[in-house]
Write a structure and sequence with these properties.
The protein is mainly alpha-helical. The protein is built from five helices and two strands, in the order αααααββ. The two termini are 25 Å apart.
Length: 147
């Protein structure tokens, strides 16, 4: 693998946006970090046709899947955007509670980080050589100086 200037921050973001959703998703079933239902907006509890704890279990499964997808090399860029959108949706839910605005701001900042991670993934893919059929490395495009 070629070492580029963005490899270390990219790996840091990839692991963060892969592992944190998995940990938070698992915790939706254990409530060791916090009691997650307290963060549900009254509006959400009226709209969602299941008990708050059941809804948080569904959210947990989605977060676990999102984290796994971020760690999967084939879906990394797409899921960076997915995690960014998910965090924005969580922030909107929190804003509607009127009581967890600090957490909403934190989730928006984390969403910006996930968006940045997705953009870095695009840049990194453009810089790194592609793998050919037999595993040899070949450039994605012809360098400007070669033409």
């Amino acid at each position: 693998m070629q070492d580029t200037a963005i490899d270390k921050p990219w790996w840091t973001l990839r692991l963060t946006y892969g592992l944190v959703p998995i940990i938070a998703g698992v915790d939706k079933f254990t409530n060791l970090l916090t009691h997650w239902t307290q963060y549900l907006s009254p509006l959400a509890t009226k709209v969602v046709p299941v008990a708050p704890s059941t809804f948080m279990h569904i959210v947990g499964v989605i977060e676990i899947i999102a984290g796994i997808l971020v760690l999967n090399r084939r879906t990394t860029r797409f899921d960076g955007y997915l995690v960014a959108a998910w965090l924005a949706a969580i922030a909107v839910n929190l804003i509607t509670t009127g009581t967890f605005l600090d957490v909403a701001v934190r989730d928006l900042v984390m969403g910006i980080g996930a968006f940045t991670y997705a953009k870095l993934t695009e840049i990194r893919r453009a810089e790194l050589p592609a793998t050919t059929v037999k595993g040899a490395r070949a450039p994605l495009s012809t360098p400007a100086h070669a033409t």
